[in-house]
């Protein structure tokens, strides 16, 4: 069969390629084996690291644009073709894009022979990895069509909006009800959104479980919100009609055209993705409107995470343990100090813990940094013990450390490494992270008790105060949060409530530390409640170790 076309010259084929390539996404090529010449659709040059649309020294030039690991396999196949042992080339392998990333292609080619000699091979190359233009599951156009449409019509984009949808917890639906059910749900969701579409809008499937409405119709953000609500109703109706087989919700992110003037398609995708993920972070089943300050905060947090990670890998450079004094209310003497983390950066100055601790927790970097704090705090404590052997050091431990690291043995081995008397160590845990009793927490508690290390329940009076938890955790100390302290000072009802709680804690043989005492007047009022310890700016702010020694240890 390959002799049948023998009369058609390579030049004629090149002309046909030139005629066809503007109409095709795939790339047509001809490889003239006799003259060691190659010609491919000129559009391929924009995509791949080819030396040009035409070139000689084909085998040698392959090294420029074929992914190195795949060269051997390709060469073997081409050798068989050149040797006349094979009439058809069909290989899936990788080419390199212009920015030298591997791109999967499927290359097929028919070998044309003349008088039994291999003359040339003609064929087609198509990308098999990405570039999905349409999606048969949802019946919608896909991301690359969206990109093309957006770029063609960008000049019209000085009004209108982008509304991006994401099905909430789609992964869980797939896991519970199966992929086929998930596919059906995608299709139904696409139908629900389509039913709320205005005739001049376009709908695309952005990725996995996300859809995107492109509005060039000069509509406002308010109208986008209304459209989101309509889609939610449509989904609710579908859920009802399917007899609650899968109860699911949908979140939305809105990007007004004001927000993406002079932006690239990539920016627009990033912004709309950010808006959608904020809606999900806010609790899902809701819509979030993009704004720059929030996006900048997000970028700043991302930068901070980079700096935190860098600091961790750079021997914790930039982290510091500050100490804040705790006073014994009855004797008026220094009881100990709470060790509080600080993070100093060149870029942002000293970052408040309220900002960076959640980032450390989110990234689990709190595990190494918390360990470092534990060691640092004990190291400082041993120095204070030289003059003040009863001094207590109170160290904050995050629930992430409890749940995801071997915190018990870390505490025990650090205490033994520093040869510190265990009863001078207090571990502070926040109740918010450990609302439900967890076996790891109980284990931590019992090991600490065995070793005579104290446990303080931090942040008491914020969130859900659960007295049952006292029983499970049996803390030695309860730390009353400043928000509660402030309320008690300002309001008699809260004052009496705090009084009752302190009495109750005392009757359970727990000690109480009141935090956030700022003035002498506050202290006088708080003293009436008879707490065991007080902490606050009135006594001293958290400060570096040397200052702490000067102010509170050496002065005594
Ligand atoms: P926290 O454990 O409740 O620490 C007490 C916070 O109250 C400290 O804030 C302290 O500076 C502040 N404070 C003390 N006295 C007063 C006062 O009189 N008035 C006012 N307005 N505030 C007062 P800081 O140092 O900013 O720490 C904030 C939070 O960050 C801590 O709250 C704790 O939850 C967390 N944190 C700090 N260091 C660490 C650490 O090493 N590990 C972990 N896991 N969390 C830490
Ligand atoms: Ca604390
Ligand atoms: Ca506290």
In short:
The chain has 556 residues and is α/β, with parallel strands linked by helices. The protein is built from 20 helices and 22 strands. The strands form four sheets. An eight-stranded mixed barrel has the order 14-15-17-18-19-20-21-22, surrounded by six helices.
Strand-helix topology:
Layout: H1 10-20, E1 27-32, E2 37-40, H2 43-47, E3 54-56, H3 58-65, H4 71-82, E4 88-96, E5 102-114, E6 117-127, E7 134-135, E8 140-141, H5 143-153, E9 161-167, H6 170-177, H7 179-195, E10 201-207, E11 210-215, H8 221-241, E12 250-256, H9 265-281, E13 287-289, H10 292-313, E14 319-328, E15 334-345, E16 349-351, H11 353-362, H12 366-385, E17 392-397, H13 399-404, H14 407-417, E18 425-430, H15 439-451, E19 454-460, H16 467-473, E20 477-480, H17 482-490, H18 492-507, E21 511-514, H19 520-527, E22 533-535, H20 545-553
Parallel strand pairs: 12-13, 15-17, 17-18, 18-19, 19-20, 20-21, 21-22
Antiparallel strand pairs: 1-2, 1-6, 2-3, 4-5, 5-6, 7-8, 9-11, 9-12, 10-11, 14-15, 14-22, 15-16
The structure holds ligand C2E and calcium ion (2 copies).
One calcium ion (CA) binds next to strand 19.
Describe, in plain words, how this protein is organized in 3D.
The protein contains 20 helices and 22 strands. Helix 7 (179-195) packs across helix 8, helix 10 crosses helix 11 and helix 17 (482-490) packs across helix 18. It is elongated. It starts with 9 loop residues before the first helix and ends with a helix. It has an 8-stranded mixed beta barrel, surrounded by 6 helices. The chain has a 6-stranded antiparallel sheet with strand order 3-2-1-6-5-4, sandwiched between helices. The protein is α/β, with parallel strands linked by helices. The protein folds into 3 domains: 10-127, Beta-Lactamase (2-Layer Sandwich); 134-290, Alpha-Beta Plaits; 310-551, Alpha-Beta Barrel (TIM Barrel).
């Amino acid at each position: 069969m390959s002799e049948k076309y023998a009369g058609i010259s390579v030049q004629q084929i090149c002309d046909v390629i030139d005629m066809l390539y503007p109409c095709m996404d795939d790339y047509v090529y001809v490889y003239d084996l006799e003259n060691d010449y190659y010609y491919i659709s000129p559009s391929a040059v924009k995509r791949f690291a080819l030396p040009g649309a035409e070139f000689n020294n084909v085998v040698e030039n392959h090294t420029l644009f074929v992914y190195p690991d795949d060269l051997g396999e390709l060469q073997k196949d081409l050798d068989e073709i050149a040797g006349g042992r094979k009439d058809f080339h069909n290989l899936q392998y990788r080419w390199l894009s212009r920015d030298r990333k591997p791109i999967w292609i499927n290359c097929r080619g028919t070998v044309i022979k003349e008088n039994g000699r291999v003359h040339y091979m003609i064929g087609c190359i198509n990308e098999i990895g990405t570039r999905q233009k349409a999606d048969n599951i949802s019946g919608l156009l896909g991301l690359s069509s969206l990109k093309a449409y957006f770029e063609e019509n960008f000049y019209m984009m000085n009004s209108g909006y982008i509304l991006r949808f994401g099905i909430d917890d789609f992964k869980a639906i797939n896991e519970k009800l199966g992929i086929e059910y998930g596919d059906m749900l995608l299709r139904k969701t696409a139908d629900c959104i389509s039913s709320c579409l205005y005739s001049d809008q376009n709908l695309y499937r952005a990725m996995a479980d996300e859809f995107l409405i492109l509005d060039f119709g000069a509509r406002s953000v308010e109208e986008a919100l209304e459209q989101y609500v309509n889609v939610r109703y449509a989904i609710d109706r579908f859920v009802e009609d399917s007899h609650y087989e899968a109860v699911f919700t949908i979140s939305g992110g809105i990007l007004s055209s004001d927000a993406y003037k002079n932006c690239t398609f990539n920016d627009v995708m990033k912004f709309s993705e950010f808006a959608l993920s904020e809606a999900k972070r806010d609790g899902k089943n809701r819509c979030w409107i993009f704004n720059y300050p929030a996006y900048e905060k997000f970028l700043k947090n991302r930068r901070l995470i980079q700096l935190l990670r860098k600091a961790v890998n750079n021997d914790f450079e930039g982290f510091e343990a500050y100490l804040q004094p705790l006073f014994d209310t009855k004797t008026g003497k220094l009881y100990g100090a709470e060790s509080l983390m600080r993070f100093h950066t060149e870029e942002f100055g000293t970052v408040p813990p309220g900002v960076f601790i959640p980032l450390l927790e989110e990234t689990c970097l709190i595990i190494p940094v918390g360990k470092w704090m534990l060691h640092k705090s004990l190291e400082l404590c041993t120095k204070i013990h030289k003059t003040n052997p009863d001094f207590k050091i109170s160290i904050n431990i995050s629930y992430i450390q409890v749940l995801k690291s071997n915190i018990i043995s870390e505490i025990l081995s650090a205490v033994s490494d520093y040869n510190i008397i265990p009863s001078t160590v207090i571990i502070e845990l926040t109740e918010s992270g450990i609302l439900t009793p967890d076996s790891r927490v109980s284990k931590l508690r019992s090991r600490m008790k065995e070793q005579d290390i104290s446990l303080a329940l931090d942040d008491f009076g914020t969130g859900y105060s659960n007295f049952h938890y006292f029983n499970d955790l049996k803390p030695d100390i309860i730390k009353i949060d400043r928000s509660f302290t402030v309320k008690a000072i300002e309001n008699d009802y809260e004052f009496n409530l705090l009084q009752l709680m302190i009495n109750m804690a005392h009757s359970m043989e727990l000690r109480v530390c009141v935090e956030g005492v700022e003035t002498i007047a506050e202290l006088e009022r708080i003293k009436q409640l008879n707490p065991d310890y007080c902490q606050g700016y009135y006594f001293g702010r958290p400060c570096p170790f040397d200052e702490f020694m000067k102010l509170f240890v050496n002065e005594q």
